[in-house]
């Protein structure tokens, strides 16, 4: 009887010790940053430094460097170099936020896409985008000329790739479209992604040595699945069947910046299912984007994780801008939220699938945001206090500069929406082009607040859930070729060894006592 009771006691003690030791930092999620507030803090310092540099150079207006500086730290990092096209890979050093370590194809060869076709996704033709993105080696992919790439099926990208559309007008559309799955270190820069539709039930090559059967895709613009170190910058996304950008199944280390979103219902999903706790390690930076005309909801819609929404311009939504469930942390800093005319859609935030008694403890914070046309942000948890971790140690940039920081959002040099009824038009594609009204750039209308404090009332301006119940829990996830069992982690493994060792000792000495 003694050995049995002793064994049970040791098992319980070891299990409790293992749970306690892992509660402070979840080692089952090895790619998360241990201090996400410090990443938000560093981003604000970077913005401050970039704007200070611009202000200092403006004192001497004869300095030609000043004319290209915007205060946007990403653009100011590379755009002022007149020979940027000869030094394209410098872009990889300009990242910010949680995706700042994404290397893309840095250090690799330049691959020039010369063929816009996608005739055989199982055996892609050399010179096509599909042939470039499946290679094992790091590649910096550029385009020989303007082109529209009409995909037959989803484009599956391998690790250490940069798709760099600078210098050409590149459109990616059709079946899929872009899939980033079980990989790392991907940069997508300066391309249009639009009119993406479900496709699949076909063989698709994902590496030079692997062709596999793929089921039907959702029709996302960019799908990020169990991947990390991803940076999407200066893209224009619209008119897709499902989401414009979805990041799910443990993806983390993501930055979405300087992009232009329009003409879509469910814009961005971060986290697939409330039950999938591995998404609690998801960390995403959303910075300097313009959420433009004809958008409805999910900018983003979050489950679990830490989402830093900073210095974006939200000029349209019909239901809500930021939504979430399953206790995500939302850190909203220095954004401009312009509410629609609908009096029932003024709230920026929406908690989904939770009663107020539950979401009251979620950490949702607004800091330095400007709220226009009656918009209001409902904070909760630590967001109700004046302090919010280390992120509060650096003041977010004033949204008076939001026009400057987001002026080049989307594909560089692409047409901009200016209000009224005319939206973005893609020749050869059908789809509604209606807008929801624009907001002026020279001032704000009445009912404008900063941090819930009224400011000037003159000037122009104004402006006009799926729960995902698919069962993914029987899957085995892969990252960089290594199999990862999401539940049985390294901590569980060590605890199990400890328990077996202690049980062996108990059994051994029990045998001695019985002699």
TrEMBL record:
SUPFAM superfamilies: Pectin lyase-like (SSF51126). Residues 146-343 form the Pectate lyase domain. Its EC number is 4.2.2.2. One of its GO terms (molecular function) is pectate lyase activity. It comes from the Eukaryota. Keywords: Calcium, Cell wall, Lyase, Membrane, Metal-binding, Secreted, Signal, Transmembrane, Transmembrane helix. The chain crosses the membrane at residues 483-509. It catalyses: Eliminative cleavage of (1->4)-alpha-D-galacturonan to give oligosaccharides with 4-deoxy-alpha-D-galact-4-enuronosyl groups at their non-reducing ends. It is found in: Secreted, Cell wall. Pfam families: Pectate_lyase_4. SMART domains: Amb_all (SM00656). GO terms for biological process: pectin catabolic process. InterPro entries: AmbAllergen (IPR018082), Pec_lyase (IPR002022), Pectin_lyas_fold (IPR012334), Pectin_lyase_fold/virulence (IPR011050), PEL (IPR045032). Binds 1 Ca(2+) ion. Required for its activity. Pathway: Glycan metabolism; pectin degradation; 2-dehydro-3-deoxy-D-gluconate from pectin: step 2/5. Its cofactor is Ca(2+). Residues 1-21 form the signal peptide. It is an enzyme of class 4 (lyase). Belongs to the polysaccharide lyase 1 family. PANTHER family: PECTATE LYASE, PECTATE LYASE 18-RELATED. This is Pectate lyase. It comes from Cucumis melo. The gene is LOC103489433.
């Amino acid at each position: 009887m003694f050995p049995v009771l002793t064994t049970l006691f040791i098992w319980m003690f070891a299990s409790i010790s293992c749970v306690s030791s892992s509660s402070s930092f979840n080692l089952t999620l090895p790619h998360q940053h241990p201090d996400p507030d410090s990443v938000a803090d560093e981003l604000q310092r970077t913005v401050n430094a970039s704007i200070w540099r611009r202000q200092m150079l403006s004192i001497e207006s004869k300095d030609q460097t000043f004319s290209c500086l915007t205060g946007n730290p990403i653009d100011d990092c590379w755009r002022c170099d007149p020979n940027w096209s000869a030094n394209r890979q410098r872009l990889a050093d300009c990242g910010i936020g949680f995706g700042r370590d994404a290397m893309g194809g840095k250090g690799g060869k330049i691959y020039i896409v010369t063929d816009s076709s996608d005739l055989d996704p199982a055996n892609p033709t050399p010179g096509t985008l599909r042939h470039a993105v499946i290679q094992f080696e790091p590649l910096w992919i550029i385009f020989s000329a303007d082109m529209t790439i009409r995909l037959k099926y989803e484009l599956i990208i391998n690790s250490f790739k940069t798709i760099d559309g600078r210098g050409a007008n590149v459109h990616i559309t059709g079946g899929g479209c872009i899939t980033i799955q079980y990989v790392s270190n991907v940069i997508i820069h300066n391309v249009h992604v639009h009119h993406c539709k479900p496709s699949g039930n076909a063989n698709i090559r994902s590496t030079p040595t692997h062709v596999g059967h793929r089921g039907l895709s959702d029709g996302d613009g960019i799908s990020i699945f169990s991947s990390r170190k991803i940076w999407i910058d200066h893209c224009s996304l619209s008119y897709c069947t499902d989401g414009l950008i979805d990041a799910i199944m443990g993806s983390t280390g993501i930055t979405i910046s300087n992009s232009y979103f329009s003409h879509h219902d469910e814009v961005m999903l971060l986290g697939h299912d409330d039950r999938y706790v591995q998404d609690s390690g998801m960390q995403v930076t959303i910075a300097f984007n313009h959420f433009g005309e004809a958008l409805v909801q999910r900018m983003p819609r979050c489950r679990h994780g830490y989402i830093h929404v900073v210095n974006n311009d939200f000029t349209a939504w019909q239901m809500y801008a930021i939504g979430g469930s399953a206790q995500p942390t939302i850190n909203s800093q220095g954004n401009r939220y312009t509410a629609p005319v609908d009096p029932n859609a003024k709230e920026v935030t929406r908690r989904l699938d939770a009663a107020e008694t539950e979401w009251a403890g979620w950490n949702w914070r607004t800091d330095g945001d400007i709220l226009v046309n009656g918009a209001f942000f409902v904070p909760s948890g630590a967001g109700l206090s004046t302090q919010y971790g280390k992120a509060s140690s650096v003041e977010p940039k004033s949204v008076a500069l939001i026009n400057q920081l987001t002026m080049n959002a989307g594909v560089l040099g692409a047409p901009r929406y200016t209000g009224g009824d005319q939206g973005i038009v893609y020749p050869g594609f059908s789809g509604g082009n209606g807008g929801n009204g624009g907001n002026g750039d020279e001032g704000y209308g009445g009912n404008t607040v900063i941090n819930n404090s009224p400011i000037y009332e003159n000037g122009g301006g104004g402006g006009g859930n799926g729960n995902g119940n698919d069962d993914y829990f029987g899957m085995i996830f892969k990252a960089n070729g290594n199999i990862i069992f999401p539940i049985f982690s390294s901590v569980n493994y060590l605890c199990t060894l400890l328990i077996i060792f202690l049980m062996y000792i108990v059994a051994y000495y029990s045998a001695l006592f019985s002699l």
